[in-house]
Design goal:
Blueprint: H1 5-37, H2 41-78, H3 81-116, H4 121-136, H5 139-153, H6 158-180, H7 190-215, H8 230-262, H9 266-279, H10 284-302, H11 306-333, H12 335-339, H13 346-379, H14 383-407, H15 411-436
Helix pairs in contact: 1-2, 1-6, 1-9, 1-10, 2-3, 2-4, 2-5, 2-8, 2-9, 2-10, 3-4, 3-5, 4-7, 5-7, 6-7, 8-14, 9-13, 10-11, 10-13, 11-13, 13-15, 14-15
Length: 445
């Protein structure tokens, strides 16, 4: 029976660096929000819309990275080194090409994109400058995601963590200098935050290239790509499209939600921006624990130890639920105190407290959802989570949110409750899928 201490220890060793890494990635947006909150609430609202769009774009960049991570974990378990190198090489090549194309599109079409998202003219100037700068250099994130996925799938989670620490420190220093005009620099506000964020992501990409070539895959022999590994590319697409589609659908529903909240006024839009940036830390533990555990599940599947993967997966869920729900409850109890660090607006503080309370219910479902999606993908069962995700995200996270938020007039609170209902519905269905064992026999090795 799999309660072996060595496996649990390995899980902790993988998850802890991931926890720090993901927390610091989240902090890039939070730091911008916190510092811009000292500048103006309007700037926070504008940048909040931009960051929602950038999250969607980063999911596009994760298309090949997510497929690469799943395949690499299974190939490592099976000892298929050549196929691993081919998959990583293809992922880097495709992310580079997609990154350049998307970065160009954002830069030249930024204003039209923001109009489509419903950003009001009063916020357009600040939203436009932030999106054009961060979007132009977003290709660096595309390459970074591919490199990080490769390192993490090999269990080398410390290196992405180190890079993220350096990136965050540079972003904080850059924000301080450029937003407020320190050390002889002009005060640039939103433009300064954008420049700082773009530079920190570029430096992070360079550091990841160094660590990847030094400690993981030192070179990509051309002879391994002649003839072109079409079969591995097909597998990347086969795994990547479903994995990305569910995430892309989720982010798209959040954009629709942002459009609805945008119609409710600046206060509710700013409240959403503050609460989103704070409450994303509730899912920090489930995201890191699931990523670490998925690497081990993939390795076990590659070794044809499906029963062991199942038992370990059940242990993962118990731990994640205890930790994540406890964090959500603590944050709800401290909500007014936490929000006061970001804003002194009494309307935002009052509304935000209720959002934090609803989020406790949301977190129960989101923890189950993140866990089940990660575990099922690691086994090769990548289609079922997409079907469930797309169906209920648009039915509940959009349909019910529109009904509660706009038609019934509950505003932001009604929309947030609909999001919680969506997460819990999908969480229950996907957890049952894992326990049904229907994912057995879907390995790519």
């Amino acid at each position: 029976m799999l309660t072996d201490g060595s496996l649990k220890k390995r899980w902790r060793q993988l998850s802890l660096p991931l926890l720090v890494d993901i927390a610091l990635v989240m902090m890039l947006g939070t730091v911008d929000t916190f510092m811009l909150g000292r500048y103006s609430d309007a700037a926070v609202a504008a940048v909040g819309v931009d960051n929602q769009l950038m999250s969607l774009i980063f999911l596009v960049y994760q298309f090949f990275s997510m497929g690469s991570a799943i395949l690499c974990s299974q190939y490592l378990g099976a000892g298929e080194n050549k196929r691993l190198v081919q998959v990583v090489g293809l992922s880097l090549m495709m992310n580079f090409m997609v990154g350049l194309a998307v970065s160009s599109l954002i830069y030249f079409r930024a204003e039209g994109i923001l109009h489509l998202m419903g950003l009001r003219e009063t916020l357009m100037s600040e939203g436009l400058v932030y999106l054009k700068i961060t979007g132009l250099f977003s290709f660096a994130q595309a390459i970074s995601l591919a490199l990080s996925a490769s390192l993490r799938s090999a269990g080398k989670t410390n290196y992405p963590m180190i890079v993220t620490i350096v990136s965050n420190v540079l972003n904080i220093i850059g924000n301080y200098i450029l937003i407020f005009g320190k050390f002889g620099m002009p005060a640039m506000g939103v433009k300064g935050a954008a420049i700082s964020t773009a530079l920190s992501r570029g430096i992070a990409m360079c550091l990841l290239i160094f660590f990847h070539t030094r400690f993981h895959i030192k070179k990509f022999p051309l002879k391994w790509f002649r003839p072109f590994p079409v079969d591995e590319l097909k597998k990347l697409v086969k795994v990547g499209i479903p994995a990305m589609s569910e995430e892309l659908s989720y982010c798209s529903t959040q954009l629709v939600g942002m459009y609805m909240i945008n119609r409710l006024g600046d206060v509710q839009l700013a409240t959403r921006a503050y609460c989103w940036n704070i409450l994303q830390y509730c899912c920090l533990f489930s995201a890191s624990f699931t990523q670490g555990g998925s690497i081990l599940i993939g390795n076990l599947i590659g070794q044809a130890k499906e029963r062991a993967a199942y038992i370990f997966g059940n242990h993962m869920l118990k731990v994640e639920l205890k930790v994540c729900v406890s964090v959500a409850v603590i944050m709800a109890l401290c909500s007014r105190f936490v929000l006061a660090f970001f804003t002194s607006n009494p309307e935002i503080l009052h509304l935000g407290v209720y959002v934090f309370c609803i989020n406790v219910f949301l977190e129960i479902g989101r923890t189950r959802n993140i866990y089940a999606c990660g575990a099922l993908r690691a086994t090769g069962d990548v289609i079922y989570p997409v079907v469930i995700g797309i169906t209920f995200q648009w039915l509940i996270a959009v349909g019910v949110a529109c009904l509660f938020g706009l038609v019934f007039g509950f505003g932001l609170l009604g929309i947030w409750f609909a999001w919680a209902l969506d997460e819990n519905t999908r969480g229950v269905i996907l957890t049952r899928r894992w326990r049904s064992l229907r994912w057995m026999g879907r390995s790519f090795v």
